[in-house]
Design a protein that fits this description.
Elements lengths: L6 E11 L4 E6 L12 E5 L5 E12 L2 E6 L5 H5 L5 E5 L13 H4 L3 E4 L5 E9 L7 E5 L5 E5 L5 E5 L4 E4 L11
Parallel strand pairs: 7-12
Antiparallel strand pairs: 1-2, 1-6, 2-5, 3-4, 3-6, 4-5, 7-8, 8-9, 9-10, 11-12
């Protein structure tokens, strides 16, 4: 998502799951608080179509979010949602507690070295691999990627208003750019 976008991505639908119309999704919001049964979800499909769906069920299984939607009862129904992004209007979401961030808000932030003040690149993507530590994909002028763990020991200050993450990289980390 772009900075200031009206919508915030909450989950990315990966594939159908089972034969009852459910889908497996990558949870981009952490937890289940935005996926209450009876609530609504806006799904932006790859073909730019937008669907407003009622959530029938939601739970986590083996690191994935499993979602069921009212009226989606078969594998072919679920297949239609593949590659879709479950979104919510920012204005509909409660503010996060201090120190918590929506993953979309980190994309586009510049990364700056705490000691030298030198720009290291922009956050182009956020990965959430198993294990709970987010990885920020930072790409600099060389167009080489550096994966930076989003932990307080490294990411010392995150200022979303300034669109800047100030870091103290471990020795040798910058040389590991792919």
């Amino acid at each position: 998502m772009k900075e200031g976008s009206e919508y915030l991505a909450l989950a990315r639908i990966v594939r159908p799951r089972g034969n009852k119309g459910e889908v497996a999704a990558e949870n981009l919001s952490g937890g289940l608080r935005y996926f209450a049964p009876g609530g609504t979800a806006e799904v932006a499909l790859p073909n730019r179509e937008r669907l407003e769906l009622e959530i029938d069920s939601a739970w986590e299984h083996k690191g994935r979010l499993i979602l069921g939607f009212v009226g989606f009862d078969s594998i072919s129904d679920a297949e239609r949602l593949r590659g879709g992004v479950v979104e919510a209007r920012r204005s509909d979401l409660e503010p996060l507690p201090d120190g918590e961030f929506f993953l979309d808000d980190l994309v586009g932030c510049s990364m700056v070295d705490e000691v030298t003040g030198r720009g290291l690149g922009l956050v182009e993507e956020v990965y959430e691999p198993p294990g709970g530590v987010l990885l920020l994909s930072v790409v600099g002028e060389s167009r080489k990627e550096m994966l930076v763990p989003f932990v307080t020991e490294i990411c010392r200050d995150t200022d979303l208003r300034a669109r800047r993450i100030t870091v103290r990289l471990p020795a040798g980390m910058e040389e590991l750019r792919a």
